[in-house]
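Follow-up to my earlier ticket, as requested here are the two runs.
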Amino acid sequence: MLKVAVVGKGGSGKSTLSWLLIQALAHRDQSVLGIDADFNMNLLTNLGLNYGPDLPTIHHAHGEFRQIVDLPVGTPWSKLQDRSLPQFSLNPDDDYTAQLAIDVAKNIRLMVVGLGDEDVLDSPLCGHGHIAPLKWYLSNLDNHNTAVIIDSVAGTDMVNYNLYQGCDAIVCVVENHRNSIRVFQQIQQVADRLGTPFYGVWNRANEAAIPTALSEVCGDRLLGQIPVDPEIESFDYQLLDPQTQRQTALIWEALVARTTTSRSRSLAQAVG
């Protein structure tokens, strides 16, 4: 099952698409782990939870992660590059995952990085230092039959940091205006350089045909579209327009098909 990072311009609908994919999969009786890796922590609230001191976070478990990967406090996270690290797993969970994964609803669990915590916002460290365990967690996670959906920080920064090196694909939410399209192009350049499969989803689609500006930039990377649906703001899957539910399912199916093809090509090239 796929590990997918959802990226894009701030306000483009990353947390919304992450929530839609999680709900669509869960309603198909598919196990899903959502990961809220954004400063705003909107995926957390979209799923009906509130941030508080009792919520387990990756940020507050740095010490445990360093012990697991044998990285002394003060040693740069980059020292983990090219090292053989312990494996993490879902169903069954390793101890680290079991400590941080929150049960949300049937088939849905959530991990929270905690970038919106006050001690992060007041810290002299940049976001990379706080989010680093996730980079190595994803790279060494055997998720078995559980889909993993990561709601990401806006823009190119975390993609350029190669936070999603352990993901099967990066999906960029894009809207039909120049700033959103420009961010799509910027992230695409970084993803292509890193060799991570990269796709797009048109959000707030209000036309039957794909606008020329989007079509020219996204081309065949576009997986589908999320229509304008006022009920999305309710964050109640049952209230969504059936077309929204249908389009979300089609996006996931297209992503699975594209990723499978990409894997097959990579394997063929390696063998050849």
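Run two:
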Amino acid sequence: MKKYMVLFVVITFLCACVGQEKFTLTDITFCANEPADRSYDQKLDPTYHQKETVWIYLEAFRFDYREEDQSYVALFDTIFEVYNEKGNCIHQGIQQMEIPSKSKPVYVWFTFFIESGHLEEGIYTVRITVTDTFSDQTTTAEGTFYIVK
């Protein structure tokens, strides 16, 4: 019986992984200070005081890349949007990011920040849309943070 249970678990695990080749972003992580590659101080309660910097970290997986001169490069188009609690877009930034690597990249990390001095007290939603330029796949991550006086 135990042998069949292990076999069932292995088959279930393999089936769960099939078809997961789609470009993916992690959830947005709000940070207390500037994040680095898989090194950050997560703010479990994403509440910031006015004039405090809102730091954001996320990672991308399963993207295409190109090999160039014994190194690799991934290319992304990003759209960074901030919405107020009424659903109005109060900030939008668009940027192309070229990320080089000496080895085949498994993931890339992104960091964004918001200077909150101009934000009123309230609830805000961040929407980050990333397009893997080489595969033309797009995915979006959203997160909510709070500004207090």
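The only thing I checked on run two: The helical segments are 2-17. Let me know what else you need.
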